Amino acid sequence: MTLFATASVAAPVRGSLSRPLVLASDEPKPEPDTIVFALMSGKCPTLKVAGRDFECRAVGFFQTEEGRANFTIALNDPTDASHIVTFSGNHGVRSQDNLYELPIDEMQFKSSDRPKLDGLPVPLIEGSTGNCKLIGSLASQQVSSISCSATNKNGKYELQFESDGTPMVLRRIRRTRAGGPPVMTPFD
């Protein structure tokens, strides 16, 4: 096990020969495996990140074996080719064949200035509240639109995605942990 250490704000007592207090924490735990990935083709008439307007390069959806679902947007940011924003939550519901709703409890941010693990940016995760709605026929892999809205201490985040009518690219990975029940996705 690798440990990371950071100097704390505590300092030695004046005149003491002791060293500054150093706190250690465990290495970040690996992310759960992705069981489904969908890439959608279209445009984003609205994409706001903490009040700033962006265009999107790509919009995708993925869900992990633990059930966390994510709408991930690669931003068209001329200053950072690695700028990615994710609306993330648990307990998404497909209440109708053409409607999937996901309550958002965190926003994830990746950029070129984030620390890297295995060469990829580690996301900054911020607690948030919001909702995403995907409208379309998931069974036929046709999405009409996605709308997401979330807020946190840094501002408001909005996505309006409109499909160009091209069927989504869908990849299923059916690996689940031994002994656990299968995780249902909005595509099941």
What key attributes describe this structure?
two-stranded antiparallel sheet; globular; 0% helix; mainly beta; 188 residues; 12-stranded antiparallel β-sheet
Could you characterize the architecture of this molecule?
The chain is an all-beta fold and 188 residues long. Helix content is 0%, strand content 58%. The protein has no helices and 16 strands. It has strands at residues 3-7, 22-26, 34-40, 42-49, 52-53, 55-64, 69-76, 84-89, 93-96, 99-110, 116-117, 120-121, 124-137, 142-152, 155-163, 169-172. The strands form three sheets. Strands 3, 4, 5, 6, 7, 8, 9, 10, 13, 14, 15 and 16 form a twelve-stranded antiparallel sheet that branches. A hairpin with a 7-residue loop joins strand 7 and strand 8 (84-89). The radius of gyration is 20 Å and the shape is globular. 24% of the residues are buried.
User: Strand pairing plus helix content: what structural class?
Assistant: mainly beta
Instruction: Report the β-strand fraction as a percent range.
Output: over 45%
Q: What is the 3D shape?
A: globular
Uncertain segments are 1-27
Rounded Rg: 20 Å
Relative helix content: under 10%
Q: Count helical runs.
A: 0
Count of DSSP strands? 16
- Elements, N to C (H/E): EEEEEEEEEEEEEEEE
Largest sheet: 12 strands, antiparallel
Mean pLDDT: 81
Distance between the termini: 38 Å
